[in-house]
Amino acid sequence: MMAPETAVIYSFGDLTADPKLLEMRRNGAPLDLEPKALRVFFHLLENRGRVVTKEELMAEAWSGTFVTDNALTRVIAQIRKQLGDSARAPRYIETVATTGYRFIAEVQVSGKPPAAAIADNRRWRAAVAIACLAAASTAVWWWVTRPRALEPVRILGLRQLTSAAAADLWPSFSPDGSQLAFSSNRTGHFEIYIRSRAAGGSERQITFDGQENLQPVWSPDGQYLAYTSRLRGGIAVIPVSGGPARYLTDSGDSPQWSPDGRTIAYRWAVMNAVLENYGQDDSNLMLVDLDGSAPRPLTRRGTPHGGHNDPQWLADGRHVLFVSNKGMLARREAPKIPDQPWLVDVVTGELHGISLPMASVRFPVFSKDSYLYFVGQGIEHASGVWRVRVDRNWKAGAPELLMAAAGASPVNLALTADGAHLALSQNLGESAIWSAPLAGSGVAAGEPRPLLRDHSLRNTSPVFSADGSKISYESVRQGGEWIVFTANADGSSAAPLTPAGQNSGMASWFGNEMKCLYGVRQKGQSTYWLAPPSGPPVRLDLKLGVRQVDRLRVSRDGTKVVAHELSAGGYRVMTEEIATGVVRELTPEGRSIGYPCWSPDGKWIAAEEQQHGRSSVVVFPAAGGEIRTVVNDAVHSWPHDWAPDSDRIVFAGQRGGVWNIYWVSRSTGRVEQVTRFTSQASFDRYPSWSPRGDQIVFEHNDLTANVYVADLR
Question: Residue 494, exposed/middle/buried by CB under 10 A (0-12, 13-18, 19+)?
Answer without folding.
Answer: middle
